[in-house]
């Protein structure tokens, strides 16, 4: 399901069921602050919830992760807008335990850059 929630939050949700009956749900929300007519700061948040452990995928039951970020974009036109930003992800619960056992990081930060366009 995708759409615009009250207070102009852009929301994207997915419910996934595998052939083995493993169920997971993810939620992503975005909010745009118009600094000028063309310069836009976008706040983003996302999370993934699994209803069962799937160790071969490194997924534990419960809330798996929380991701937060900001992107600053400049809209040259409605069709094209490059952006730069930062992103932070933290794994939680059983997924955190599985990642630690495998020697993987449970949190990460990154710099992002890209562009958004319509055609």
Which features would summarize this protein structure in a list?
119 residues; mainly beta
Describe it for me?
With 119 residues, the protein is mainly beta. The protein has one domain (2-117). It contains one helix and seven strands. The chain has a seven-stranded antiparallel sheet. A hairpin with a 4-residue loop joins β3 (23-34) and β4. The longest helix is centred in the last third of the chain and has 9 residues, at 93-101. The mean pLDDT is 92.
Our measurement of the CA-to-CA distance between the termini, rounded to an integer number of angstroms, reads: 22 Å
Shape: elongated
Number of helices: 1
Parts with pLDDT < 50 across at least 5 consecutive residues? none
- Mean pLDDT, to the nearest integer, reads 92
Question: What's the number of domains?
Answer: 1
Q: How are strands sequenced across the largest beta sheet?
A: 1-2-3-4-5-6-7
Roughly how many Å is the radius of gyration?
A: 17 Å
Topology as a string of helices (H) and strands (E): EEEEEEHE
Count of DSSP strands? 7
Strand content: over 45%
Major sheet: size, sense and barrel closure? Answer: 7 strands, antiparallel
How does the SSE layout of this entry go?
Layout: E1 2-5, E2 9-17, E3 23-34, E4 39-50, E5 62-74, E6 80-91, H1 93-101, E7 107-117
Antiparallel strand pairs: 1-2, 2-3, 3-4, 4-5, 5-6, 6-7
